[in-house]
Amino acid sequence: MSDKTAGEGKFPHSGGAAGIAPSGTRRRVRDLGLKLGVFKPGRFNAITDVPGVRVGHSTIIRGSGKLQRKQGPVRTGVTAILPIEGDVYHDRVVGGGFVLNGAGEVSGLTQVMEWGLIETPILLTNTLSMGSCSEAMVKYLTEKHPEIGQKYDVVLPLVGECDDSWLNDIAGRHVRSGHVFEAIETAASGPVREGCVGGGTGMITCDFKAGIGTSSRRLFMEEGGYNVGVLVMSNFGEMKDLRVDGVPVGQLLAPKFAHLPKRKDNYGSIIAILATDAPLATHQLSRLSKRVALGIGRMGSYAAHGSGEIILAFSTANRVPRETKRMEYRMRVLLDERMNGIYEATVEATEEAILNALCMADDMEGLGGHFCPAIPLDDLERVLRQHQRI
What we know:
This protein is α+β, with helices and mostly antiparallel strands. It has one domain (about 20-320, about 330-375): 4-Layer Sandwich (L-amino peptidase D-ALA esterase/amidase). It has helices at about 110-115, 130-145, 175-185, 250-255, 280-300, 340-360, 375-385; strands at about 20, 55-60, 75-80, 90-100, 105, 115-120, 120-125, 160, 205, 210, 210-220, 225-235, 270-275, 310-320, 365, 370. Strand 13, helix 5 and strand 14 form a beta-alpha-beta unit. Helix 2 (about 130-145) crosses helix 3 and helix 5 crosses helix 6 (about 340-360). The relative contact order is 0.21.
């Protein structure tokens, strides 16, 4: 999907818009030479390494300067994750989740935990656009499936949020149905755009610009090869707490940025989406989600009082139909004794996904002239070399 797809029409994208300084030199953390953990990534090192998973974005960057409510500046968007290549409404996937700290929201998660099924795409956006995204997904699904609310139950869209109000006119609620439709309809497999895109456009991590990041791991077991992919919308923490592969990078870089104003009393949040093609049951996916939380902790998060760390997980190995002739369905399930490798791979992929969100984001100026710097890759590489990580 091109950055200019909607930039020339009704729904503007970045594409060189005001407020963002594309460096052209941003690199994923693995390109700096840091190889986290023991498992190798998949082909794209992304959640899309799980076959059938697709990701799309719609990015809104408009205006600059002083806040003009409902006018801007706008630094926001929406990201869509589609769990399977086909129709997830009719061929549902098994889901689970975990809430480490609940000062945030993923609407629809309660039903996932009750039924153990995911039946809608997953959207990520800012806090005050959750309603707009939910309404748009209901419209999208009911037009595609008019039997919703008639032959079958109503749907509860899955929408996750983080607060981007330090850079974005969040109360202006600039995400519209068209942005949601665009993110869903342009969702694709293959490489995933990261950093200041989609729902991550206005997000900050440890006082550096961040946003969307993803990573994957490939496991080979006696039962076969499995993929684990994690995608994050990362928006948590303070610079002093940032750690990279155990190195206190935030403390070491903080003097360079001491002069910059930073957000206060807004510890942000992180929403993580985990996908795998390992045949897992709901309780296993919920247990796996807890290991995502361990990966978040490795980056320096302590799940602050005002922060939300919420994880949603799904497996594509079983497709649960709405109906069968005998109203029965048999699932394949990996035994719990075989889960340790997947646990470890999940922690690795989560840590790297957050790092990719940081490394791929550019400097951004937003609401009221608030400036959020990108993490300087040359300095990061230097620190990691000094600590013999690369």
